[in-house]
Design brief:
Keywords: NADP, Oxidoreductase, Peroxisome. This is NAD(P)-dependent oxidoreductase. Its main location: other. Belongs to the short-chain dehydrogenases/reductases (SDR) family. The chain is α/β, with parallel strands linked by helices. It has a single domain, classed as Rossmann fold (3-Layer(aba) Sandwich). It is built from 10 helices and 7 strands. The chain has helices spanning about 20-30, 50-60, 75-90, 115-140, 155-160, 165-185, 205-210, 210-215, 220-235, 245-250, and strands spanning about 10-15, 35-40, 65-70, 95-100, 145-150, 190-195, 245. It has a 7-stranded parallel β-sheet, with helices on both faces. α1 (about 20-30) links the parallel β1 (about 10-15) and β2 (about 35-40). α4 runs parallel beside α6. The longest helix has 26 residues, at about 115-140. It is globular, with a radius of gyration of 17 Å.
């Protein structure tokens, strides 16, 4: 997936300084895409690798063009500026990627309302705001896609009872993505969700889900990057309104050997994913 299939295509992404978002952005850049990243990480954080500036450098090194917009997906003007920057620098928006997300697995009794609000503001409101800002440009694109990194709606008691505050935030993202698919079907805009089958070896997983041992049993972010590129390489009419799992997308694309994506057996299934 390294040909120039994304030549001239412009993607706007929330987050993207590191982890899955950066892997997806870099993969699209290898295909010739232009990237506009909206992220807060202007300065290095000792707990997390990378800033919006190092991300732009990586994307450019991969063969794409990139602009970093330092801002917060919770700030309406920052969101509008990201979409406007894409239009001014690259002529429009073809892809909107809702990547920014707060991970907090605290139970109901222990979750402070301030953190509950943060989850909903970034995950749900941020997804709505960025998509809303991109819609006028997406309507003019022949290859319009919205891709939201959120899970299938698994309503089993196990997941409903784990961490309702976080579950609401992620399922809210999914419901919005499915809603966009229905609302903008006639406008030719595809909207889908993408979620990993297993945990992914990112700083978030290391810090919040088990340290080095947790990341050892996780695949690397490239599995999501390849799956995202496969989804976004199709015309909008090919598929919309779906909650997709990375390995299923890759299997459809003919990629069944997952060993290059790493991870020590047994791999850990991701949140909201049941063993299959």
């Amino acid at each position: 997936m390294t040909n120039k299939q994304f030549d001239g295509v412009t993607a706007v992404m929330s987050g993207g300084s590191r982890g899955i978002g950066l892997a997806i952005a870099t993969q699209l850049a290898r295909g010739g895409a232009n990237l506009v990243l909206l992220a807060k990480t202007d300065s290095p954080d000792p707990r997390l690798p990378g800033t919006i500036h190092t991300a732009v450098e990586e994307i450019q090194a991969a063969g794409g063009k990139a602009v970093g917009v330092v801002g917060d997906v919770r700030n309406d003007e920052d969101v509008a500026r990201a979409a406007r920057t894409a239009a001014e620098m690259f002529g429009g928006v073809d892809i909107c990627i809702n990547n920014a997300s707060v991970l907090n697995l605290t139970g109901t009794e222990e979750l402070p309302l301030k953190k509950f609000d943060l989850i909903q503001q970034v995950n749900v409101r941020g997804t709505f705001a960025l998509t809303q800002a991109c819609i006028p440009y997406l309507k003019k694109s022949p290859s319009a896609h919205v891709l939201t990194l959120s899970p299938p709606l698994n309503l089993s008691e196990k997941w409903l009872g784990k961490h309702p505050g976080y579950t609401l935030g992620k399922y809210g993202m999914t419901l919005l993505a499915l809603g966009f698919a229905a609302e903008f079907k006639e406008a030719g805009i595809a909207s889908n969700c993408l979620w990993p089958e297993t945990t992914i070896a990112t700083a978030a997983v290391k810090n919040l889900l088990g340290g080095d041992e947790g990341t050892a049993h996780a695949r690397n972010p490239q599995v999501m990057a390849d799956a995202a590129a496969a989804v976004l390489s199709h015309t909008p009419g090919y598929r919309s309104g779906k909650t997709l799992i990375d390995v299923d997308v890759l299997a459809e694309a003919g990629i069944t050997d997952l060993t290059p994506y790493g991870g020590v057996e047994p791999l850990d299934y991701d949140i909201f994913v049941d063993p299959r």
